[in-house]
Amino acid sequence: MPRFEVESTLDHLCKPSLVQLQPNLFAAKFDLMKIVPARYIVEQALKSGELKPDGLVVESSSGTFALGLAQTCATLGLKLTLKTGWLEPIVEWRLRHLGAHIDTVTNDAGNLREIQEQRFALVQKTLDEVPGAFWTRQHDNPQHPAAYEPISHEIGKTLGKVDILVGTVGSGGSLCGFARPLREANPDLKVIAVDHNMSAIFGLTSEQVYPLCEENWLSMLGMGSDIIFPNVCHAACDEVHWVPIAQMINAVHELHRTTGLFVGPTSGAALSVANWCARNHPDSRVLAVFPDHGIRYMDTLFNPAWLNDNAAELRRTWAEPVLCQSPTEVAGEWARFPWGRRTYEEVFGYPPAHRERRTSEDTAA
């Protein structure tokens, strides 16, 4: 008979399932990964007194971190104000149902950096107007990556030595947080970052992508960004892969068909790369991080009508990633680049730049 452990609501929501997909491939599967740092940051602020019971939490987020904060604040009896860009209807309903107050920023020019700056200005305005309000600062708070380290330690104890870690990158916290303990246990750990081929996190790509990527990457994915946030630790990464959305979706569908596991496209990006690693390194133990559940994507990648509208592009397949000499070569195909544990400036010779794209939507940070 299985043994059950009674857990608090937040303990349950923050604990991933550890799933074996192949003899040498394992996945840490979350329903909502960013509730882990959301809870940790808020609870640390309560312990230190920086946030008072019944106090106000404020953040700039339109996606999974916002949901993690909303669930945390609802459980702990805290108030929450979010400064957001465009929201998917299901995400907006959940946030409001959990009691969050939402201020939405729009910009006719659609410049993502300007939208984010306006949202940060609204955060500061709230901090000035509400004494004792607490900003979680998910993008540069070192507690964000630190929140994942206990989970990574436990996974390492269960699996033993992990040889390859595969994780997607957005605001940067999770990959670094998972990598630190695993690399302490195995200095030869290979860390593979997975990005989207219109993201600027690992350099300005060509933007010569297929329509599915052009039209959906900001609205659909919890990965990639036009803005490189301070929590991105470039020097932790050995290799970077850029994965097209069609590849992510096909990987998610195949996973569901063969296992019944129901995950979102960001997990599909990690799965695509992890499958490739497990196949090419059969003697290595590979761990992939799956950050999202599939329920958020019922109107898109699990919607027969949407899939039929995109059938031609979804028939594209990539057996192998293209090896690039520079991230600037990344276009519409699945690509990879040997980053070599270097900083951004060591790779390019200059500090990170910020791409300005015309879009009315927001990264799912």
UniProtKB/TrEMBL annotation:
Keyword Glycosyltransferase found:
no
Q: Does the keyword Phosphoprotein apply?
A: no
EC code: 2.5.1.47
Q: In which pathway does it act?
A: Amino-acid biosynthesis; L-cysteine biosynthesis; L-cysteine from L-serine: step 2/2
Domain Tryptophan synthase beta chain-like PALP, first and last residues per copy: 34-292
Reaction(s) catalysed by this chain, per the record, are:
O-acetyl-L-serine + hydrogen sulfide = L-cysteine + acetate
Name the UniProt key words of this record, in alphabetical order: Pyridoxal phosphate
- Which cofactors is this protein said to need? pyridoxal 5'-phosphate
Record-given protein name: cysteine synthase
What is the protein's species of origin?
Candidatus Thiothrix phosphatis
Upper lineage is:
Bacteria, Pseudomonadati, Pseudomonadota, Gammaproteobacteria, Thiotrichales
